[in-house]
TrEMBL record:
<dbReference type="InterPro" id="IPR037845">
    <property type="entry name" value="GRAMDC4_PH-GRAM"/>
</dbReference>
<protein>
    <recommendedName>
        <fullName>GRAM domain-containing protein 4</fullName>
    </recommendedName>
</protein>
<feature type="compositionally biased region" description="Low complexity">
    <location>
        <begin position="166"/>
        <end position="178"/>
    </location>
</feature>
<keyword id="KW-0812">Transmembrane</keyword>
<keyword id="KW-1133">Transmembrane helix</keyword>
<dbReference type="GO" id="GO:0005789">
    <property type="term" value="C:endoplasmic reticulum membrane"/>
</dbReference>
<keyword id="KW-0597">Phosphoprotein</keyword>
<keyword id="KW-0496">Mitochondrion</keyword>
<dbReference type="GO" id="GO:0031966">
    <property type="term" value="C:mitochondrial membrane"/>
</dbReference>
<keyword id="KW-0053">Apoptosis</keyword>
<feature type="transmembrane region" description="Helical">
    <location>
        <begin position="276"/>
        <end position="294"/>
    </location>
</feature>
<feature type="domain" description="GRAM">
    <location>
        <begin position="472"/>
        <end position="550"/>
    </location>
</feature>
<dbReference type="GO" id="GO:0006915">
    <property type="term" value="P:apoptotic process"/>
</dbReference>
<feature type="coiled-coil region">
    <location>
        <begin position="110"/>
        <end position="160"/>
    </location>
</feature>
<comment type="subunit">
    <text>Interacts with RTN4 (isoform B).</text>
</comment>
<keyword id="KW-0256">Endoplasmic reticulum</keyword>
<feature type="region of interest" description="Disordered">
    <location>
        <begin position="163"/>
        <end position="184"/>
    </location>
</feature>
Amino acid sequence: MRVCSDLRAGDSNRHVKVKQKSAVLNMLKKLDKIRFRGHKRDEFLDLAESPNASDTECGDEIPVKIPRTSTRDNEELRDPAGPGTIIMASGVQDFNRTESDRLNEIKGHLEIALLEKHFLQEELRKLREETNAEMLRQELEKERQRRLELEQKVNEVLKARTEEVPAAQQPAKPQTQANGTDKRSHTVCSRLQKWFCDKFGEYVEDFRFQPEENTVETEEPLSVRRLTENMRRLKRGAKPVTNFVKNLSALSDWYSIYTSAIAFIIYMNAVWHGWAIPMFLFLAILRLSLNYLIARGWRIQWSIVPEISEPMEPPKEDLTVSEKFQLVLDVAQKAQNLFGKMADILEKIKNLFMWVQPEITQKLYITLWAAFIASCFLPYRIIGLAMGLYAGIKFFLIDFIFKRCPRLRAKYDTPYIIWTSLPTDPQLKDRSNATVSRRLQTAASRSYVGSSAPTGISKDEDTSRFHTTKRGNFHEVFNLSENERPLAVCENGWRCCLINRDRKMPTDYIRNGVLYVTENYLCFESSKSGSSKRNKVIKLTDITDIQKYKVLSVLPGSGMGIAVSTPSTQKPLVFGAMVHRDEAFETIFNQYVKITSASSSSES
């Protein structure tokens, strides 16, 4: 009986285990349906490889009870007397092991599902932040409201039209003739309205006001090839204007006597008979006709001055660094000179109208008043005739005489005198600085003369005596007479370095210092402390040759040095590294020419 009861208890336990197994399988199927849909079941980590769950995500673990066998069942399983007890015990143990594995797998899947949920929430939050779904919804609702309002307005207009049509048709029923005339007038009006909309609707839409669009132009980066191409384009574009100006100057200079004489006679005759404006219009039409024929392939040259075709150099594709640098310097120099000329013209016009030179602006003021009074009392035909005759005589005769006789032009050519005497802004600045310095010098000289200057000494001697350098008086530093002092251009001197190629010692080969020019000498003061033997004094009459010099031929540009040859040196002395080389060279050369011409005239 005991054996039977034990067998029944074992069957009941086995039935419970089978039920638990079916429940676990159903739970696994449901989890497979809930799981993330992108991966397969085998791709997830096992429990041993799965990451640890956080406190918020996987803190609440599911209590899992592993079924255990009782001591009684173990005793029964260990009973060797029972038939098949060993096989049953092993089967129960395998079943218990598989159930624990399945529960652990369920735990891992739950952890993975929680992690996937957390990751999906983060992605959804990022997407909401990036797309601004709320803003898009608001804009979409606004557009919907606008569409609904437009639909309501359209429906109202259609209803009003439908109401107007039967209202117009109802009183027309008793009178058939009036009905016919109304229909015809309505059809005519509709056709006219349709025709007007088709013809002029586009133009009406063009006059609709719209907000201006501020477009920012992108600036191109600096490129050597683009720079040279733009300079060539500018030269080609300005060529017709320059040719026109050359032809006008050739007419005024009587380059071709027959052409200038014919042009003068035709112009004066046209002005006398009042045909000046038709003549200029006819010339413009003639020029356009000739340009049309030239564009068609005709070879026509209508120019007083023969055109000189300059050879166009093909652009180089591969340029060295020095060539690119030299090209940029050349273009920058041309742009600097062009902008300088344009700035001079604009500044002169500005100063003319701003009363910077009152005596010049006063002439313009009187001329404008005279022209205004003449225009009020004289007929326009007489004014035009006078102006045309004066322009023709001035252009063809007076300018020709003034260009051939510069002294007459400097005395009697009023427009030329006014234009040349108008100052630019840099010239006004230099004048103001010069006046301030003169006032300071006069005040200092007066104070010194009144206090300690001996009698019988002139102002020039006094000012030259007290012109000093960093080391003392100028004549004491260079052992010269008191009358020798630097010129006004180089009172502070030019910073440079003296290169004496006759010397072999490095200390004597190059010396840094300041270069001065006096009336008779070229003086170099060394910057190193020591005796005056390191200074250099060259008499201008002893110079045999002076020229601009380039110390390093590898560097681009024309150099920053001046070479001076004397009989006492085998190789020329070079004053290099001069920032204001051109100014210094012009000053030295002009003073050298002045001294040599004066000495030659005194000897003769």
